[in-house]
Amino acid sequence: MKPNKINQQRVNTMLFEIIRTENYEDMSKIAAKRVIGKVQQKPDAVLGLATGSTPEGLYKEFIKDHKENGTSYEKVNTVNLDEYMGLDRNDKNSYFTFMREKLFNHIDIDLENTNVPNGMVSDMEAEAKRYEEHIKEIGGIDLQILGIGHNGHIGFNEPGTSFDSRTHVIELAESTREANSRYFHSIDEVPTHAITMGIQSIMDSKEIILLASGAGKAEAMKKLVYGEITEDFPASALRLHKKVTIIADKDALQLI
Ligand code: F6R
């Protein structure tokens, strides 16, 4: 990995450090360099992880670096943001399976140290409480990776979610189900509900990296950087966090 050769442009706002990259590959490489740096500096770091298309390149970079440079995840704990409700953990569309296939099965992480909320338990309130307590027990999240929904969701915190929220069950917005139906045979198969870390759970992370790629995210990124801080646009809570870095490609940042 030679990130110094990557064409990147820094934009300073009062609120976020924004790294604008040429394309998706560079976004993934620059983000990977930061996260790997954190793991090297703190081998027992707690990483908050996301699913979806955006971090797939980042996870590929972790795997490549692990194989080539031997960065170890033996002592790392991970906490995922969310999981669909009612999908078996072994379903190809569950985030449990996504994480194993895209990352965990290819690095030396102890699977016991990986956490994805369980969308199949009958007592969801107990599961949400257990998840929050576990995050505390392992020392809180050192570095949280986020993507962003077109409607500004982070995790599955859809518009209207309280900034005080902790892990909870949420009804997915129709636009989220539509966007995610690309992984399923039809929209009818996309679960209607999910369990997600809350906005406050995300805000408690010591540091946050938000990734975005493609023109489809441009409006959301504009609102994130310049819009109002409001529960109607969940990602805007990040403007109240001390240490957020946005790493995004130029298409996603075309309105900034
Ligand atoms: C996934 C998650 C979501 C996604 C967002 C963007 O764990 O929490 O907030 O980050 O829906 O998804 P992609 O990356 O597929 O555009």
Structure commentary:
The structure is a single chain. This protein is an alpha/beta fold. It has a single domain (4-249), classed as Rossmann fold (3-Layer(aba) Sandwich). Helices cover 29% and strands 18% of the residues. The protein has helices spanning 24-41, 56-69, 95-102, 124-137, 174-180, 199-203, 218-226, and strands spanning 8-12, 17-21, 46-49, 77-80, 82-84, 114-115, 143-146, 168-171, 193-196, 207-212, 244-249. The strands form two sheets. The protein has an eight-stranded mixed sheet, covered by helices on one side. The protein is globular and about 45 Å long. The two termini are 28 Å apart. The mean pLDDT is 94. Fructose -6-phosphate binds at residues 50-54, 81-82, 147-149, 153-156.
